[in-house]
């Protein structure tokens, strides 16, 4: 009985409590009905190319983000950063003492174990000639398995840093303790790149309308992983999170004895790999999807066609956009759809921040604060967006931007209007900053429009009806990865990087030379921690970066806003040490917007007469609806209530760059049973015992 209990605990340890990136399950074939590998006899199955593909497709849901849940999906993935705010804030990361060492949980190894089994047994079967079907498809699906294993390891690398490297099937009873030896993170990253290098020659250039892993997507993902590791090791050096540091927890472990770590050489290796992989795909795929510079549909029912660049983020068929290298298709007919457009139509308990909005350049290439920029201020959202980078103009709702162009919505608005005021389209008018329904509030006032499909069929009440495709990988990432890696390696913007950067800026409506932007970028302004809503990405390891590198990071921030890239970027850049008492801000509420008629309502007084009531309440009480103008003229969502958890702002603890291992898993992976001897040594600044908060 005791052995069974121990085995169950070990199984739980392998499964893990930490969240793995989820999503992307294809439903256009019978693949999803196949059993996991460890539930099927290898002699009875996985003997044809189709069966191999059935196994790998099941693991897409474990390696790619998921848009199918009750919310705005990808449009919320930047929540909890300086880019985007959710309803209650990121208390787990930025409220000191909230995150504690868990008592139980696991390292999340079951999926890797199954993939190892599949790879090893499939390769043996192929060598023996036991797998039938097209050689190209057999190679494709085996290549997918290597990519999946690499991405599973990448999620663990980001979570924990050093991690066990196991490439064979793990025997739960005999191998758990020995196999739990954490290997240096650079070795883990190198192993991931080996898996990608093994896979890429086996993959087809494009495949299955780019709805399955292909060579171009894999190259872009390889560049992502290599750049992540290069920059993490560069900016975290000396922190105890990088192998070779004097205070690195793995330095005294028996299996690491005799190893030497040339940190500069490792950074150079990973930067070089990032450049090579990014360039290979970026040179093949131009940014051919046109920005027509049209900011809104021209009239009713013009759901598609008015701006292909806008539509690339809200189209049911992303296969027609060359830049989209990997995507997920949705279809209401097989119950595979999402709520993104619905939530963006009615409010989604999220919002872009003032910091993100202010970071977008003017169309003339100047930062908003630069002399001659032409910035008009931020009294309204429309004014804020005037003459700005068109990614801001397109992807944030302003007062006069269209919210609905379907006839039913137009009729609903017109029924209460006199004849001479009837509308032909429905404008956004004002953000929903006051609402009894928590799910429909615009937390900052800046509502994201990126990913919003105007087709009324995609936002039918609370029904999962949005079938807009979900981008997993797009070539713009390869462009930006190359630009950043090449600058860090060579300290210059080479001709290739310049070409990529110009293409990104030109499509965003910015025609000024890159040098104009860099020259006008004032790092004493950008890195002023006393300035509300400063850009966290202006720092690495607590120190300001140079103007060129900052301009590269700002470009990345603008291009990927609202797509879920920000947290990984901030972590790898070590951009969080200086975050102390940082207040998330939104729209400039108190200069003008507080007067909008949408924030007033009419009620009957005791005599039955109409009485106008202001919905804006800013007294800090439980009835308060917005933050006080005495605090700031900008809306501060976490200072609405005087007793709010985050009323003092965001403060970061260095331990939070990596997650702690639980007490239970460390005890079970100790050769002596004492957590102090565990091969899963604890990450720096995290205590050994459960229930304890970060030390720094």
Coarse shape: globular
Task: Give the strand line-up of the largest sheet.
Answer: 1-3
Largest sheet: 2 strands, antiparallel
Quaternary status: single chain
* Rg result: 26 Å
Instruction: Supply the helix-strand structural class.
Output: mainly alpha
Task: Describe the protein in words.
By secondary structure, this protein is mainly alpha-helical. It has helices at residues 2-15, 49-58, 60-63, 91-94, 110-127, 135-160, 172-179, 185-199, 215-235, 263-282, 308-311, 340-346, 354-359, 381-385, 390-395, 407-414, 476-490, 495-507, 514-520, 523-526, 547-560, 566-572, 663-668, and strands at residues 84-86, 324-328, 350-352, 402-404, 426-427, 470-474, 539-540, 543-544, 600-604, 610-614. A two-stranded antiparallel sheet has the order 1-3. Strands 2-6 form a two-stranded antiparallel ribbon. The protein is globular and about 85 Å long. The chain starts with a helix and ends in a 28-residue tail after the last helix. Mean pLDDT is 91; it is low at 1-9 and 17-38.
Task: Summarize the SSE layout with pairings.
Layout: H1 2-15, H2 49-58, H3 60-63, E1 84-86, H4 91-94, H5 110-127, H6 135-160, H7 172-179, H8 185-199, H9 215-235, H10 263-282, H11 308-311, E2 324-328, H12 340-346, E3 350-352, H13 354-359, H14 381-385, H15 390-395, E4 402-404, H16 407-414, E5 426-427, E6 470-474, H17 476-490, H18 495-507, H19 514-520, H20 523-526, E7 539-540, E8 543-544, H21 547-560, H22 566-572, E9 600-604, E10 610-614, H23 663-668
Antiparallel strand pairs: 1-3, 2-6, 4-5, 7-8, 9-10
């Amino acid at each position: 009985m005791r052995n069974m209990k121990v085995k169950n605990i070990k199984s739980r340890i392998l499964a893990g409590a930490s969240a793995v990136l989820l999503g992307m399950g294809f439903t256009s074939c019978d693949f999803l009905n196949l059993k996991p590998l460890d539930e099927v006899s290898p002699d009875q199955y996985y003997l044809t190319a189709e069966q191999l593909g059935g196994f790998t497709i099941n693991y897409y849901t474990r390696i790619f983000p998921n848009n199918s849940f009750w919310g705005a999906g990808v449009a919320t993935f930047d929540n909890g950063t300086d880019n985007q705010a959710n309803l209650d804030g990121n208390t787990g990361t930025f409220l000191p003492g909230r995150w504690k060492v868990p008592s139980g949980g696991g390292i999340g190894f079951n999926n890797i174990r199954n993939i190892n089994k599949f790879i090893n047994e499939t390769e043996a079967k192929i060598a023996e000639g036991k797998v039938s079907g097209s050689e190209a498809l057999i190679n494709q699906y085996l290549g997918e398995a290597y990519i999946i294993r690499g991405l599973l390891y990448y999620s663990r690398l980001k979570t924990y840093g050093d991690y066990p490297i196991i490439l064979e099937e793990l025997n739960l009873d005999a191998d758990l303790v020995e196999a739990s030896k954490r290997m240096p993170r650079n070795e883990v990253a190198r192993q991931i790149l080996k898996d990608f290098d093994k896979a890429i020659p086996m993959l087809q250039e494009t495949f299955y309308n780019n709805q399955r892993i292909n060579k171009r997507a894999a190259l872009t993902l390889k560049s992502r992983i290599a750049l992540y590791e290069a920059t993490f090791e560069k900016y975290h050096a000396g922190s105890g999170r990088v192998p070779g540091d004097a205070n690195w927890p793995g330095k005294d472990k028996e299996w690491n004895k005799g190893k030497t770590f040339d940190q500069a050489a490792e950074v150079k290796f990973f930067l070089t790999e990032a450049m090579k992989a990014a360039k290979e795909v970026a040179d093949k795929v131009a940014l051919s999807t046109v920005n027509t510079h049209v900011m809104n549909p021209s009239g009713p029912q013009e759901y598609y066609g008015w701006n292909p660049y806008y539509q690339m983020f809200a189209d049911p068929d992303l296969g027609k956009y060359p830049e989209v290298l990997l995507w997920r298709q949705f279809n209401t007919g097989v119950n595979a759809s999402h709520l993104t457009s619905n939530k963006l139509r009615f409010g989604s308990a999220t919002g872009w921040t003032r910091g993100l909005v202010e970071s977008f350049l003017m169309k003339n290439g100047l930062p908003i604060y630069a002399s001659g920029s032409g910035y008009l201020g931020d009294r309204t959202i429309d004014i804020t967006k005037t003459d700005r980078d068109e990614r801001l103009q397109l992807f944030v709702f302003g007062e006069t931007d269209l919210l609905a162009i379907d006839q039913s919505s137009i009729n609903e608005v017109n029924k209460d209007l006199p004849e001479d005021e009837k509308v032909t389209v429905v404008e956004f008018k004002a953000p929903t900053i006051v609402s009894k329904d928590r799910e429909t509030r615009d937390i900052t006032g800046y509502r994201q429009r990126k990913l919003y499909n105007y087709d009324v069929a995609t936002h039918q009440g609370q029904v999962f009806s949005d079938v807009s495709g979900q981008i997993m990988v797009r070539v713009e990432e390869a462009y930006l990865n190359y630009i950043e890696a090449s600058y860090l390696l060579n300290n210059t913007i080479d001709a290739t990087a310049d070409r990529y950067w110009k293409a990104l800026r030109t499509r965003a409506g910015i025609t000024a030379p890159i040098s104009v932007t860099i020259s006008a970028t004032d790092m004493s302004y950008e890195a002023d921690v006393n300035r509300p809503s400063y850009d966290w990405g202006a720092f690495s390891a607590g120190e300001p970066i140079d103007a060129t590198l900052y301009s590269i990071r700002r470009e990345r921030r603008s291009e990927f806003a609202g797509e879920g890239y920000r947290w990984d970027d901030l972590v790898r850049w070590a951009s969080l040490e200086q975050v102390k008492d940082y207040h998330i801000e939104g729209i400039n509420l108190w200069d003008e917007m507080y007067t909008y008629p949408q924030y007033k309502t009419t009620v009957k007084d005791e005599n039955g007469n109409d009485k106008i009531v202001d919905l804006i309440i800013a007294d800090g009480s439980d009835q308060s609806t917005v933050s006080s103008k005495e605090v700031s003229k900008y809306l501060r969502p976490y200072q609405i209530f005087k007793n709010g958890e985050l009323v003092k702002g965001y403060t970061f603890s260095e331990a939070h760059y990596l997650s702690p291992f639980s007490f239970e898993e460390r005890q079970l992976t100790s050769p002596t049973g004492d957590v102090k001897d565990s091969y899963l040594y604890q990450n720096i600044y995290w205590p050994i015992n459960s229930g304890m908060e970060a030390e720094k």
